[in-house]
Design brief:
The complex is a heterodimer of chains A (394) and B (379).
Chain A (H helix, E strand, L loop, with lengths): L1 H17 L26 H13 L17 H14 L8 H13 L2 H12 L5 E4 L15 E5 L2 E12 L6 E7 L10 E7 L5 E6 L8 E12 L3 E2 L5 H17 L10 H9 L10 H29 L7 H24 L15 H9 L9 H12 L6
Parallel strand pairs in A: 1-4
Antiparallel strand pairs in A: 2-3, 3-7, 4-5, 5-8, 6-7
Helix pairs in contact in A: 1-3, 4-5, 4-6, 6-9, 8-9, 9-10, 9-11
Chain B lengths: L6 H17 L2 H9 L8 H9 L18 H14 L5 H15 L2 H13 L4 E4 L14 E5 L2 E12 L6 E7 L10 E6 L6 E7 L5 E13 L3 E2 L5 H37 L1 E2 L2 E2 L4 H30 L5 H25 L11 H13 L4 H11 L3
Parallel strand pairs in B: 1-4
Antiparallel strand pairs in B: 2-3, 3-7, 4-5, 5-8, 6-7, 9-10
């Protein structure tokens, strides 16, 4: 315990010294997130400095092994880093699907060679990854995917189409589910494979969403040649890797609902709806909605903390991330409904500079995807019912 | 601190569960109710509680207790919630023991705490006056008289007030209803002249009392803590009580949920288990998630109470609000999913519904605590 206290004090001091003041302010636009990659651009000098210092410290991914550019921290230490970053409102220096999704799967299922090749480029922000899972006819029923990979010597030839591929148009590499055995039962003929998005035959087309943004793409594969050595895990057992990765994805998405820092929602609401001399919101119904929301938000934060502690103690259920995903995304949607209601007509402007290009309504619309992407709320509840509660299948 | 139980805490849970499920399953409460028991709980079982060290759980060791904390008290409360065992544990061992050990003089501690530890002294907190829990609205007057005070006014929902050997009474010595300053806590003998206790059997077959104070004389030594400055002590003690009741509601919710899931697997309609229907599967899954999240929030609050009582208010408000809402959902879904059986007195599930309603009100319902949270955050 004494060692951990020392670590906390040192961490606090290091962050205090190294995190630029601009990087401690709440993020206000997409440009504030640094994704890395071959074509990465920093939106500010402070963003560059912060990223490079954290990268050099190994803290873009504090809990990964040092040999892959991580910080080599154990669970308790990594938690302290998160807590101390949250305490000063420090932004994530690097956000990537390599960190939140592919990395954990590679650490568990990858060969030494695959780990050495890919993980250091993730921690250093050199390669940006995207996820090739969903297809036009394989959404909630993901395992019915049809993109096929046919054997050709040392290579697979990949043909098919993916959809809802986040930021595929910016990504350097893709981790992708493909059907390697069309004759097998649907869960049994799938492989998990990695390839370069600049490979011949890969093309992407952004999808315009209700927010006016295009964070997702359609991704097309036309006779793409990929070395067989790029399969992660066993051929035809890709579903195991896919499911393992989904647990991490769900944990990440559920975290979208957590806001440790920043002004309380009630104070943000006071800006537009007004408050009395004691600061009490003029809109009693809204105040009560916000208070109830904040009760649930604080409780979810405790549950997220407990989930990590349970995992460390070996007491967690592998499907629990589905429970957190469900609750976290529904909560985030509630948060934005409240923000829209609090903003009133000011939150309806779509283009003005005053509204920062309609930042709030666009973010509000974006949250509607939270309970769809990475498995819908209904799929999550089904998983909890069957795998945790052991209710009979129909 | 990790949000999981330590090994010692798990052992405490196991031993509390063993005793309570063995000696006081729901049928124990049912028997007391049906027999119109004069006490409303089993004194014999309370003796066993004392022998096992539960009654003095929060009492410092020098006064015969175990000197444990709110997390441990919460563990016992959770087990109580599973079987709805009626006992003076909350009123005496949690609330009164906390009030006296935190606010009492050395003489007061020496006089009362050993009795709480050995199970011989029962105590109750008299706080509520109106229909809703509003501690700052306390109106019961204590006016100086000679060397002491005279108490006049009414108290309601004094949990276990009908059997208490000692009352802790919140009174106003200065200021007016709504003000923080001017509250004082008194230790009062229920047999004092001018004091009338009316037992009120409640909807949940537990007991409380309405108490009328008509110029009840107490001496200066009966002040617990400081005159006019009682709100700090009272606030801390109430928060400990809230954490405990929230724990009881977690146990209650989980028990109802467990029984309901079992029923979903057993009950057949349309030729299959009703748990196969997606409409019920999703509702069961939602309830499971609510309970898990509430459990985390409650453990967080109990740890916060042990770490620093003065900084635990927000965590406690979150826990008590969540626990109230979750328990309400759990019992409603429990009855609904049990169908007509859930409406029968013969079936236990109704006892849980009734107790959940009482626990909601006790020390402030979900609305009260959401409001507290909003005030704390300045909106």
């Amino acid at each position: 315990m004494a060692d951990l206290e020392t670590f906390r004090v040192e961490t606090r001091a290091w962050l205090e010294q190294n995190c630029p003041p601009e990087m401690r302010k709440p993020m206000t636009s997409d440009g504030d997130t640094f994704w890395g990659g071959r074509n990465a651009k920093f939106s500010s000098e402070a963003q560059r400095v912060w990223f490079e210092r954290m990268r050099d410290k190994g803290w873009t991914v504090p809990h990964w092994p040092k040999e892959y550019g991580g910080g080599g921290l154990d669970g308790e230490e990594a938690k302290i880093v998160r807590q101390e970053m949250a305490a000063i409102g420090a932004r994530q220096p690097l956000t990537s699907f390599g960190i939140s999704m592919l990395g954990p799967a590679l650490l568990k299922y990858g060969t030494d060679e695959q780990k050495k090749e890919h993980l250091p480029k993730i921690t250093a922000g050199l390669i940006r990854w995207c996820q090739g899972y969903s297809e036009p006819n394989a959404g909630s029923d993901l395992a019915s995917l049809q993109t096929r990979a046919e054997s050709d010597g040392d290579h697979y030839i990949i043909n098919g189409q993916k959809i809802w591929t986040s930021y595929a148009n910016y990504a350097d590499w893709i981790f992708c589910l493909v059907r390697t055995d069309p004759a097998a039962k649907k869960h049994d003929g799938i492989s998990f494979i990695l390839f370069d998005m600049t490979s011949k035959g890969v093309s992407t087309k952004p999808i315009l969403l209700i927010s006016g943004y295009s964070p997702f793409c359609e991704t097309f594969f036309d006779n793409v040649r990929v070395p067989k050595a790029h399969v992660v895990g066993t051929v035809n057992r890709g579903w195991d890797v896919a499911k393992y990765l989904l647990q991490h994805e769900r944990a990440m998405i559920s975290g979208m609902g957590e806001r440790g820092v920043g002004r309380p929602l009630g104070q943000i609401a006071a800006d537009s709806v007004g408050a009395d001399a004691q600061g009490k919101l003029d809109d009693a119904q809204l105040r009560s909605q916000i208070a109830t929301f904040e009760v649930d938000e604080a409780a979810l934060a405790a549950a997220a903390e407990r989930a990590v502690d349970l995992a460390k103690a070996g007491q967690s259920h592998p499907a629990f991330s589905s429970a957190m995903k469900y609750y976290g995304t529904e909560l985030n949607k509630r948060r934005y409904e409240i923000l829209m209601s609090a903003g009133g007509i000011d939150a309806l402007e779509w283009e003005s500079e005053r509204s920062r290009g309609g930042a709030r309504p666009r973010a509000w619309l974006r949250t509607k995807a939270n309970s769809i992407e990475g498995g819908t709320s209904e799929v999550m509840l089904g998983i909890v019912a069957k795998r945790i509660l052991d209710l009979p299948g129909s | 601190m990790a949000l999981v139980l330590t090994e010692e805490q798990s052992m405490l849970r196991d031993s509390a569960r063993g005793l309570i499920s063995d000696k006081a399953p729901v049928s124990h409460l049912r028997g007391l109710r049906d027999g119109k028991d004069a006490t409303g709980f089993s004194r014999e079982l309370w003796k066993t509680f004392a022998e096992m060290g539960f009654s003095g759980l929060l009492v410092p060791e020098q006064f015969g207790g175990s000197g444990l904390g709110c997390v441990e008290a919460g563990i016992v409360m959770e087990e109580i919630g599973r079987t709805l065992m009626p006992s003076p544990f909350l009123s005496t061992s949690v609330v009164a023991a906390s009030a006296i050990s935190r606010g009492g003089s050395e003489a007061q501690k020496a006089q009362h705490l050993p009795g709480i530890s050995d199970g011989s002294l029962l105590a109750a907190l008299a706080i509520d006056e109106g229909a809703k829990h509003r501690p700052l609205q306390t109106k019961l007057q204590a006016v100086r008289s000679g060397n002491g005070f005279k108490l006049s006014g009414d108290k309601a929902f004094v949990v276990d007030g009908h059997t208490a050997d000692l009352l802790i009474v919140a009174a106003r010595t200065a200021g007016s209803a709504g003000e923080k300053a001017g509250l004082t806590l008194f230790l009062v003998d229920p047999k004092a002249k001018g004091l009338a206790v009316e037992r009120t059997a409640m909807v949940d077959s537990h007991n409380a009392a309405r108490i009328v104070f008509d110029n009840v004389e107490v001496n200066a030594d009966s002040v617990l803590g400081e005159v006019d400055q009682g709100s700090g002590l009272l606030g801390g003690v109430l928060n400990i009580g809230r954490g405990a009741v929230a724990s009881e509601m977690v146990g209650l919710s989980e028990e109802v949920f467990g029984r309901t899931v079992t029923y979903l697997k057993e009950r057949k309609q349309f030729g299959k288990a009703i748990g196969e229907f997606q409409a019920l599967q999703h509702r069961a899954a939602q309830l499971y998630i609510e309970i898990e999240i509430t459990r985390a929030a409650v453990l967080k609050a109990l740890q916060a109470l042990d770490a620093d009582l003065d900084k635990a208010a927000t965590a406690v408000a979150v826990a008590k609000a969540r626990a109230g809402t979750t328990a309400t959902l759990a019992v409603q879904e429990g009855v609904q999913m049990h169908g007509g059986m859930g409406m029968t007195d013969q079936f236990d599930i109704g006892f849980f519904m009734k107790r959940a309603r009482v626990c909601q009100e006790l020390f402030g319902d979900a609305n009260f605590h959401a409001d507290q949270l909003a005030r704390g955050k300045g909106y």
